[in-house]
Amino acid sequence: MLTDPDIAILLTGSLVGISAALIGPFLILRQTAMLSDAISHAIVLGIMLTWLSTGLTSGPIQILGAGLSGLLCVWLIERLTETRRVKEDAAIGLVFPALFAAGVLLMNLFARDVHVGVHTVLFGEISFVWLDTTMVLGVEVPNALLWMGVIALVNLGFVLALWKELKLTTFDPVLAAAFGVYPRAIFYALLLLTSITAVAAFDAVGAILFIAFIIVPPSAAYLLTDRLGLMVFLGVVIAVASVVSGHALAMSWDVSISGMMALMTGVGLAAAVFLGPRYGLLWRLLRRRAERQRINVRTLMVHLHAHEASLERGQENVADALVTHLNWPEVRANSVLEAALAEGLIRHRDNLLVLTELGREEARALVEPWRR
User: What are phi and psi of 325, to 5 degrees?
Assistant: First the structure.
């Protein structure tokens, strides 16, 4: 069953998405998300150095060695930033291309006949994960699925075990230090897990899809909620949904599975940008429209109140005056009248617009502060 191509692809992609989405929110909130991009490229050097030292192209030693090279990348970026001669973004741009280039150089010099290549590292090939298997308790399990399952459990255990420490060091590292929590240690542990997750994901999905999973679903979740726990959960849901929908569309359109999965994370982010309940463009537009309507209704009440006892009442407190005197378009005037009537602020009487008691009270509340 696990060697069925579709099942193996879906489970492997989902585990990569879950593993990345569990730690991605903390990188997003710390504003260090692009370190994942730097790490995912820098560990090519670690992969090559570990292979040259041990001859291993996979397994825990390879994962750990490559993960440590990711930490080396972060350490060099921090040391370069501390000189205050370059900013952090420039330091990232200086360090990780150098480490990545060194890894590619070693690859071309020593690994021409070994199953390690730039294409494999960057893009992976999730379509073939079901071909490389291992027997576990009598069950044939794809290696990529096995390793990503272990990484997902490790990441989940890390987040659950250090949930309070992660929250505290993410939002207030100074307070965390005062309480005896070591923010730098937590941060480096988080980056080590990021590096290890990236290495484990390489054979299956490559660096590009890993970066998409660790940044895009948590970013989309961040637009949907301000609660950290819910943000992590939504990030996982969006990642898994991207895997399932991306696989279905890739099969239907006969295109790259990894590429379509990455694209679907972008679709999830776009949906959050437009439909998010608090920061979404659509709801912000609707809130602004409602606020403008409210201002227009208040303007109408003040206008009616100002002419309520005047001789011009017959010309001013009528529907036509909103167009001729207030210069409102007819559609706008009708909309404001409907809103005011629905709220019980005005009523019609002998072709006049008359304030109700509630409308008169609100009009007075608006006018009185300006009379003092």
Answer: -100, -40
